Amino acid sequence: MTEVIVIHKWKDEQKADVMKFATTIMDMAKSKKLPAGLKLEELFLGQKENEAVCKWDVDTLDHLMETAKSMKPTWDIQAIEVDQKFKKGLF
After folding, report:
1. Residue at 32 is within a domain
2. Apex CA 5: angle with CA 10 and CA 46, to 5°?
3. pLDDT tens string for the chain (91 positions)?
4. Which helix (H) or strand (E) holds 76?
5. Would you say residue 22 lies in a domain?
C-alpha cells in the first residue's frame, strides 16, 4: 500500500460542493464503502483557508485519483505519494 496526501483548494462559491464531497467520503469511510484498495486515514478541513488535507492508504495513486475524478470535483486537487519520516511517540 502507498501513503498519499491529498490537498484540496477551492473558491468560496465552491464551498457547498466541497463540503458535500467531504461528507460523502467520510460517510463512505465510516461505513466501509470506499472502493477496495482505498482507505481514508485522516481528513483535516481548513474552512477559513478554503483548503482540506487528507491522508490515504491506497493500492495506487492512479486508482485514488480516478475514483476522485468520477465524483466530478470542480476545485483543485493535488495528490502526493509520501513516506512517513517521523511520528511522535515512535522514537
Report:
1. yes
2. 40
3. 999 999 999 999 999 999 999 999 999 999 999 999 999 999 999 989 999 999 999 999 999 999 999 999 999 999 999 998 888 876 6
4. strand 76-82
5. yes
Nearest-angstrom CA–CA distance, 37 and 32: 11
Report in angstroms the alpha-carbon separations of 91 from 86, 87, 88: 8, 8, 7
> Per the confidence metrics, is the pTM higher than 0.70?
yes
Rounded to whole angstroms, the Cα distance separating 79 from 62 reads: 10
Whole-Å CA distances, 50 to 33, 53, 74 = 27, 11, 13
Domain count, the chain: 1
CATH number at residue 23: 3.30.70.100
